[in-house]
Design brief:
Elements (H helix, E strand, L loop, with lengths): L2 H4 L3 E10 L2 E11 L2 E6 L6 H8 L7 E6 L2 E2 L3 H5 L1 E4 L11 H11 L4 H14 L15 H13 L5 E5 L7 H14 L4 E6 L2 H7 L2 E6 L2 E7 H4 L3 H9 L8 H9 L1
Parallel strand pairs: 3-8, 3-9, 6-7, 7-8
Antiparallel strand pairs: 1-2, 1-4, 4-5, 9-10
Length: 253
Amino acid sequence: MDETRENVVLCVDNISKKYQSRTVVDHININLTKGVYGLLGANGAGKTTLMRMLCGILLPTEGQITLARQPVTSESYRAMLGYLPQDFGYYPDFTGREFLLYMAALKGLPKPQARQKSKELLELVGLAEQAHKKVRTYSGGMKQRLGIAQALLGDPKLLVLDEPTAGLDPKERVRFRDLIASAGKRSIVLLSTHIVSDVEHIADSILMMKDGKMIYQGKWEESRGDLEAFYLEQFGDGIDRADEKQREGGRQE
């Protein structure tokens, strides 16, 4: 067992993000260890701003973020990070393999390690047979799987996924959930979603945001029965749920 990885903690210490008089993230405090965390909230709750701060894309107006005691602005923090944003940019004329090798180079992986890891990850996400095809020929689900493969380069200790299953069909949704659940056995995985059924299937704990504040944090087992009712009560029509066909399809797979 990797004791270093076992003891890694993401510490979010009283962070806020303000734009002039508007507070988007309001004094959030969380400590996360290995596992899958479902981050829930309606549009405008502050989820994406929080995740972008965790990835060092935005800096907090106040407060501190550390991973394994390394500050979010440091090279060592970035080396431990994997990120899949909601609108991930692909290079359409790259093959899947070329794209992963390019991303590995950006992350500073040595060439032999990059080649081996790219091969392993393409197999892991079910794209080994499509590795030499252009990314522009990939379906939406295949592109999402390629996205999580690039996020897993470098064996990150923190994996941040922003709406990774949005728009996927039931079969792809189940495949993606399995990948996320597997990653959570080794890493801190923060999964932002509007879709309660994703959390239902894979999250160990849930975090819930409203108006920039963290309004709920708890183990999934402790809130399983009341989660959907609580979420609907808090956010009403702000919820963006998978339709019943998708959800039933996901359960049948």
